[in-house]
Amino acid sequence: MRDTYQNGALARFASWLTETVLPFWLAAAHDPSRGHFHEGLSLDGSPLGSVTLRTRTAARMIHAYADAAALGLGPPGGLAAAERAAEALERDARLPDGGYVRAFDRTAGAVLDPVRDLYDQSCVLLAQAALLQATGNPIYRERADALLETIERVLPGSDGGWAEDENHTLPRRQNPHMHMFEALALLAGTTGDAGHLALLERCHDLLHRQFLRDGLLIEFFGPHWQCGAEWRSERLDPGHMAEWAFLLHAGRTLLGRDDAAASEMLMRTALELGCSARDPLFLIDEVDRTGQPLSDGRRLWLQIEQIKGCLVTGRGARAVAVADALLREYIGAAPSGLWTDRFSLEGTPIAATVPASSCYHAWTLVGFFFRNASPAS
Description:
Layout: H1 2-5, H2 8-28, E1 40-41, E2 52-54, H3 55-70, H4 78-92, E3 103-105, E4 111-113, H5 118-135, H6 138-154, E5 172-173, H7 175-191, H8 194-211, E6 212-213, E7 216-217, E8 220-221, H9 238-250, H10 252-255, H11 260-274, E9 298-299, H12 300-312, H13 316-331, E10 342-343, E11 354-355, H14 357-373
Antiparallel strand pairs: 1-11, 2-3, 3-4, 5-8, 6-7, 9-10
């Protein structure tokens, strides 16, 4: 696999992110006065006018800069900014009885959406795990354990897993549970704690018991994980298939499970159902069970997850080809440090902003790249 990482396209993508994107976004998208990162940037690289910041975006930016620092690849001041952003999140988004709101005003600190959502909690847990790994500061372990207690108390779910949010909104989704798996894998890998590993096992069991059905990754469910048109269970996300294929590989050492067959099945299905007819190297945002597009778009993050999934399932040549096409189409025509985040299926740029959330996806690929590209790996 190491030879694949040395290929020009993947190495160029890694260099672009570490040498251009992370320094640029630290300067353009971090507010040192309030501590927060912005939700995104305008197409010209200027800050967005909106003051709304989703907790999941704030947490994912913290994760990216903390994890980059843990590898010695972050820009000067990146870890300090991540820690400052974490304190700002505690100040503006944490509720008195635990857990974090869905969105807030990044300039005034006012809560804009007070609901505790599993997706947001999983992203905060990922950020706390990354900060613990990067700094060794026990405060992040304490916060992670407190958050896990809150999730169990506030978001109990029937038949395994957790509720969508504290209002028990339907349909239930697999996606927040996937990100809980991701966060718990980083946390358990850092702490070695048996309780963290048990929760990771719980997410793993849920994938195999509920989410994987008839060779497909189901996205939406009823209250007891039932499928049906009323729950939109026919809508599939090829990017999530690729993401799970990668995460199963990443979690194999912690769990001692051989998930190679499941990872291969997920990646094969993503490519069979999810590729654009016009641009077959790219995945479509959403499709039905026959592969018919359900949206007219293909975002950047899906292509990054496709590269990760291809790398761990022996599709190195495709990973290189997708990386090359991504550099050419999504990045090549954008201003330095930015990218075009979404194209229509006809190949027309349709993104109105450059969302910060895509930095997280890009970093997860580059972090994996550097952890596996060195001769010592």
